[in-house]
Design brief:
The chain has a single domain (about 15-135, about 145-160), classed as Four Helix Bundle (Hemerythrin (Met), subunit A), CATH 1.20.120. Helix content is about 55%, strand content about 0%. It has five helices and no strands. α3 packs parallel to α4 (about 95-115). It is globular and about 45 Å long. The model has no long low-confidence stretch (mean pLDDT about 90).
Length: about 170
């Protein structure tokens, strides 16, 4: 059984990185516990599917760390929601679970490198997601952690309703 990260991992950034790994592994594992058909079926009133939620998380992490903190241009930062932060999540029919996991894994590698070398009190760049008054990396980390925690809980419910893996 996989549990949450243990205390004593080192500095604050190491704890953040460990919890991000934990949440990524949780949502990927939950998604992989479903048959392919169930990944694209909604079981919740808000109409998202497990694959759409995982896809959203990959884009969300990229928006906050690469486009947001680093200020780097990224193609289609709102790619999980058709160019708008308020649109419904959609995944193209040709996109597989492995494709989405690869997108998430690629971003995870960038995030891990960033957290390993950047003090958490460093202020985000302007010109990407932020035009003025950018937050520091610590705030971005906590925002991304709460996104993962909230959506991991959402996914737990959807996976349970679809007959997938439950529990730790």
């Amino acid at each position: 059984m996989r549990g949450e990260p243990a205390p004593g991992l080192g500095d604050e950034a190491e704890h953040v990185a460990a919890y991000l790994r934990y949440y990524r592994a949780t949502v990927i594992g939950r998604s992989r516990s479903l048959p392919t058909r169930a990944l694209r079926e909604t079981v919740v009133p808000s109409d998202w599917t497990p694959l759409e939620l995982l896809h959203h998380l990959a884009f969300m992490e990229r928006r906050w760390f690469t486009w947001g903190f680093l200020g780097e241009p990224v193609p289609d930062p709102w790619g999980d929601s058709q160019g708008s932060p308020d649109a419904a999540w959609r995944v193209p029919a040709e996109t597989s679970l492995d494709d989405v996991v690869a997108l998430l894994t690629t971003q995870a590698t960038r995030t891990e490198r960033l957290l390993a070398v950047t003090p958490l009190d460093t202020v985000a760049a302007t010109g990407g997601r932020f035009d003025s008054d950018p937050p520091d990396l610590r705030w971005i980390c906590f925002h991304v952690l709460q996104e993962y925690a909230r959506h991991a809980g959402h996914l737990d419910v959807a996976v349970e309703l679809a007959g997938g893996q439950t529990g730790e």
